[in-house]
Every structure is written in C-alpha cells, then in structure tokens.
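quick one, 308 residues, struct below
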Amino acid sequence: MNQPLDLLVAGEINPDLILSGDVEPVFGQVEKLIERADLAIGSSSAIFACGAARLGLKVAFIGVSGEDVFGRFMLAAMQARGVDTSAVIVDPTQQTGLSIILNRGVDRAILTHLGTIASLRAEQIPDHLLRQARHLHVASYFLQTALQPDLPELFDRAHTFGLTTSLDTNWDPSGEWRGFEHLLPKVDIFLPNEAEACGVARTPVLDEALRILASKAGIVALKRGAHGAVAQRGSQTFKVESIPVKVVDTVGAGDSFDAGFLYGYLNGWELTKSLRLAAVCGALSTQSAGGTAAQPTLAEAMTYVHPE
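---
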C-alpha cells in the first residue's frame, strides 16, 4: 500500500531572529549597530521539513505552537514551502518559542526562549498519522524534553507500522549527552555533526565515535561542514567532499544536510550518493540568511551530484 506521506516530522516550532554583523553584545546599556536583521523559519525540525519538501518529498509536521504572532508566522511560512501543518497542535495557553541568533559568518551565538519547543509528547502523535508516512524524523532531542522519555516507544510504534526512523540530536546545552542507551538501537539513521557524535559516544576521537555509534544505530551520517561528510554502516565507511560556496550564514545547514540524505535514502540511492546530496544541500543552504532561503531544489542540487 502506498502511503501519502514520505516524511512525518515530530518537532519543535520557533522562528529565528537573525542579527548579522561583526559585533558582540555588551551589558551596561551599550548600544551597537548590526548590519542586518531577518525573521526567518527557525527550529531544526522545521528547517529540515522545508528542505525535504523543497527537494520534492511529501512532508507533514506535528508539533506544538502558541496562538501568537510567532506561531502564525511559522505555520504560514511552512505551509508556503509545501509542508503540511494540519496536525500541529495550537495551544493558546503557551508562547511559541524564539531563537535570537547573533550571526558572524561561519560562527554564531544563540539565545533561545523555549516556549512550546519542549511541549510535544509522544502520546500526542496518533497511530493514524504514523500509518500515513514512510519515515519518522526527530530533531532537537535535548530541547524536546517532553518527547524524550517516550521516544524509544515512539520509534518502536513507527517500526511496527513499517516506518524507518532518523534522529538529529543537535547540541546538548547541558553538555551531559545522556539518554541514548535504549534509543540508538531504534534509530535507523543517526545524523550528528562532529561535536555531537563525540559527545554522544563519549570520546574525543572522531573515528572512534563513528565506530561506536555505528555499532548501535543502523547508519550514521556525520556532518563535517566545509570538510564534507562521512558515513558508516556496519564496518563500511563512506566519505564525500563538500563544495565551495560563499557563506552568508550557517543557520540550518545541518538540517538541509539531513533533508538531502533522507531524500536519497527514501529513494533507494547508494549511500555514497545520498551522502553527496546531503553535503551539497548543506553547503548550498549557507548562501542566504536563515535556514530556508537558499535551500536547493533537487535539480539545483543534482548539478553538483555526480552519477555513480
């Protein structure tokens, strides 16, 4: 039976207010001028969803937003990019989250108001919605604290209905990197960056981290920014280079990487080709402010993906 959805994303909803300029804030009522301010689609999950839809996948999103200006902005912006938000839970008693990003090219500082970011619970994701999809993706593990305890059970439910699963932890603000002993064996595709991989695996050595993680999750696809990407499946290791681009900001580049990799995976591509598409999507997304403005179409990305 063909499901109507390629991807179901269970995630957080918040816009990014991106302040760009080569400055650092100073307390004591010191005012500094920035070069640009952009209100953009934020949250790892939403940026990923938009990137996947841009590539041509059928994507639905479930999460929690407030009934406020930030929530309305996010839902309208996601819908405009082809993401089905009809399953989003709008809670008028909560504020939609917000991230303020001070962007300096390849580096950034982030202040986040959680709001509804931490609100989604596994029990709010109904079986009938899972049954419509081929794959379930979860990101921002450490911010989605209400989802954390029952995420292994949610992935089990997804597998019962024939879905595959993926996880992008994003950064752990606590620096503790806990909670993966029972979760990683239920993850078909694990999508960390270098620092996250070393944190979860509890080793500073990247090759060792990759080996440890690949012994638990199905596939590990690891982002290395300008250095490309590396993946491991069992004992097999795959590496690809990135492409040269003029970086405006790196917000959401990892989420666009995830979208590219899952496009290839869900279309049955060889792992190296999926990894190449992922690296290309991540690189191309850095050419405009915000996480979604420069996300490529499949045709645009394939210009850089050489056939096997």
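The mean pLDDT is 94.
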